[in-house]
Amino acid sequence: MKRGLVLALVVACGTPAKQKPAAPQNLRATASDQQVLLEWDAVADADGYTVTVQEGAGGRTATTSEPRFVHTPAVNGRTYDYLVRATNGDDAAKISATPASPLEGWVIGSVPGDVAAIAYGGGVFVASSAGKPTTKVLRSTDGTTWTDSAFPGSGLGRVVFTQGKFYIAAFTGGIYSSADGVSWATEFTPATMGRQIAAAEDGTIVVLPNVVRANGAWSNSASNLPATVGQDVAFGAGRFVAVSGSGAIYSSTNAITWQEETDHPAVDSVHSLRFTGDRFVALGSGGAGMGARLLSSSDGRHWTMVTPDEGACPFADVAFAQGIFVTVGAQQRICTSSDLSVWRLRETIPALPFPEPAGTPALSAVIYANGKWVAVGENTGVTHP
Fold first, then answer.
1. Which residue, 113, 117, 323, 344, could crosslink 130 as a Cys pair with Cβ 3.0–4.6 Å?
2. pLDDT tens for residues 303-348?
3. Tell me: the pLDDT tens digits for 237-291?
4. 3 forms bridges with which residues in the sheet?
5. What global pTM score does this model have?
């Protein structure tokens, strides 16, 4: 072939046209409360992405530089169609999703007593009248139907479960245990009786102010925890944490030697402390007229203040599971949050005006166990699902 002919062929062909990006692959949608999260695999040579949200005959578009998009606010119960394409492409991927509100439709159960604490273990729920003037211990296998247990003590505290047994501390009688929530026996009678109790997975138990069960043996410990730090105690992240009613915080890794934790915002008062799966949450108040305040900590030592945005939500107790915080309290109100800050009122059972009329029962404790949420209170209880 002659050189001139080769050159002519090259000039004639020119530069090949650039291919447009293909449609996104592996498009997936995660629907939750009032929002839908879209995610997909990154597309080669994409200049960004265009997302079309279709609602019936209408729709809207948005752009994003990342292979993800959050559609919010979305209407719960409405099905949306989504088209996703590279901004400089023609082909689109399509998916549909329906956002839904979590934890709606709680079922009312039969709770024959005023109870304020709950624990689960060995296939059984046990509730106690923690801090209430009456003595009541109830047992349930499903969280809905409860039966009374004959309990020998009085002036009860919270109930905990560890190493195959439930434990309750009582002002009168000492510390009791039960393997089934029905038959209770005295475990230990301390020199100084308290009723706030917490348990670690290895069976170590703390009863404020200075009772410890370690390696299977009970003792009146030589703890350096001040007697004023007796409002509540919890275990998590490898340590016990105790709080006073005025907001002082102490922690210990061995239940004997305690240190005061000072890296926390000031609060006017703290009424309870919980470990909620990956963090401690102290429920309290910021002072007169300031409403609820929550202190949050992943390690029990360094704390941050969280101010809930929903004034109608009660904060008698809080639990966490399936990515949701749940709090319960007055008027049988139930609120949910994903971050402790933004809360949504889920249920009022029954629907009652606010503030709470005199005599209206409240929910006092909530737990997630055995695949369901269970909340109990003043002769009332609810479950979900």
1. 117
2. 999 888 767 788 999 999 877 889 998 878 888 887 888 788 876 5
3. 999 999 999 889 999 999 999 999 999 998 888 889 999 988 999 998 754 444 6
4. none
5. 0.76
- 121 Cα distance to chain centroid: 19
User: What number of other Cβ atoms are within 10 A of residue 344's Cβ?
Assistant: 17
Is the omega angle on the peptide bond into residue 355 within 30 degrees of 0, that is, cis?
Answer: yes
Burial of 52 (0-12, 13-18, 19+ CB in 10 A): middle
3-state SS of 161-209 is EECCEEEEEEEECEEEEECCCCCCEEEECCCCCCCCEEECCCCCEEECC
What single-letter DSSP state applies at residue 17? P
- Single out the residue of 89, 94, 82 nearest to residue 46, CA to CA: 89
CA dist 303 to 160, 238, 326, 357, Å? Answer: 25, 16, 20, 35
Euclidean distance between CA atoms 350 and 137, whole angstroms: 25
Taking the C-alpha atoms of residue 203 and residue 76, their distance in angstroms, rounded to an integer, is: 44
Which amino acid, 305? M
Strand partners, 240: 235, 252
4 by DSSP, 3-state: which? helix
Q: Which residue segments constitute the domains of the chain, with CATH numbers given? A: 28-97 (2.60.40.10), 107-384 (2.130.10.10)
Distance CA 307, CA 285 (A): 10
CA distances from 304 to 91, 209, 265, 282, 294 (A): 47, 26, 7, 10, 8
Tally: H helices and E strands in the chain: 1, 35
6 SS3 class = helix
Measured between alpha carbons, how far is 228 from 207 in angstroms, rounded to an integer? 14
Give which of 99, 91, 43, 88 is closest to 68, Cα–Cα. Answer: 43
Q: How far apart are CA 82 and CA 348, in angstroms?
A: 34
Q: How is residue 48 annotated by DSSP?
A: -
**DSSP letters spanning 238-249:** TEEEEE-TTS-E
Report residue 128 CA to chain centroid gap. 21
